[in-house]
Amino acid sequence: MKKLLIIALVCLVASCGKNEQPPKDYAVIHGSVKNAKDSISLRLYNPETSLSMMLELDDKGNFRDTLKLEEPNMFNAVYGNVFTLYLKNDMDLKIDFDAEEIQKTITFSGKGEEENNFLKYKGKHISGLFGKDYKNYLGLPEDEFKTTTDKFLADFNSELESKSATLDSSFVAEEKAGMEEFETNMIAQHKEQLEINSKLGKGNPSPNFLDFKNYAGGTSSLADFKGSYVYIDVWATWCVPCIYEIPFLQKVEKEFEGKNITFLSISADQMKDEDKWRKMIVDKNLHGVQLLADNAIESQFFVDYYIYGIPRFILLDPEGNIVTYDAPRPSEEKLTTLLNTLDL
C-alpha cells in the first residue's frame, strides 16, 4: 500500500510538470475605453527605439491585440492624453479607462498590473513634485530645491523597495537607473531655470532680433513693435502642435482686434522652405505680422529665450519688456484671462 502511494505521488508530480506552461513569446493587451472617440486608435510609442503600434478599438470601445516584443518596452500610450505603459512577453494585461479623464480613471489588471500600477504611482508622485507649474519647482532657491528633491527621491525609493518582491527584476533595475538620470536632469534644469529667471524675469528687457524677413515685404526688427503689447508665436510649418493652435490664435486675434496689441508670428522654418512658409500663410489665412527667422530654430532670438521646442508663446509690454517668457497658448483660457488684465 505504501509503495502504491509513493507511485501515485510520483505520477502526480510528473503530471504537474507536463502541464506547466513555458513563458509565452508575446504579450496580450486588452481592455476597454469609456467615452471612446470615433476613429481614434490607441497608439503605443517607444521614444528611444521609435517602435510604434496602433491598437484598433471596436464600436464599443474594446480592444485586444498580441504584441511580440524582442525585449521589455516602456511605451508612451497615446489616446488624446498620454500615459506610460510597461510591456514584456508573457504579460496578459487588461487596461480600462475613461477617455475624458484618463489619469483619474485608468486601471490595470492581470499579469503585468504590478509594474503598471507602480508607473501610475510614479506619475502621480512626479506630478506632486512639479505642481501646477514645474517652473516653480525648478526655480526654488538652492537649499529648498535640494530638500524637496531629496524627499521626493527618498519616498520614491522607499515605495520601489516595498514593491520590489512583486515586480519584474529588470523593471526594478530600469526604474532605479531612470530615477538616477531624473535626478541628474533635475539638477541641470534647476541651474538653467535660475539663469532663465534672472535673464527673462518679468520686467526685464526682451532679447532682440534684427531684420527678420516680413511676409508683407522687407524686414522687421523687434523694436519696430514698441508702443504696443506684443504676443509672439514661435512656430513652423512642420510643427503639428503649432498648426493645431492656429484657429485658436485667429479667434484671440479677432477678440482683441483694435486693441493695443500686436500678434507677431515668427517661423522657425529654414530659409530654403520660404515658399512653403508663404504658402501656408495663404492656405491657413494667417493674420497678424508674419516673420521668418534668420537661422531657423538656431536663430539667436530663440537661443536667448531658451526655446528647445515649439510652439512657444511670449508676451511683451509696450516698452519691449517681458510680461512672461512662457505665455499661455491660444487654446488655453488662461491667455484671454491674462490679456484682459492688461491695459489694452
From TrEMBL:
Entry-linked CDD domains: TlpA_like_family
Thioredoxin domain segment(s): 200-344
Recorded GO MF terms: antioxidant activity; oxidoreductase activity
Pfam families for this protein: AhpC-TSA
Keywords: Cytochrome c-type biogenesis, Disulfide bond, Redox-active center
Disulfide bond recorded as keyword: yes
Cellular localisation: Cell envelope
GO biological process: cytochrome complex assembly
PANTHER family linked to this entry: THIOL:DISULFIDE INTERCHANGE PROTEIN DSBE
Listed InterPro entries: AhpC/TSA (IPR000866), Thioredoxin-like_sf (IPR036249), Thioredoxin_domain (IPR013766), Thioredoxin_ResA/DsbE_sf (IPR050553)
Keyword Disulfide bond among UniProt keywords: yes
GO cellular component: cell envelope
Protein name as it appears in the record: TlpA family protein disulfide reductase
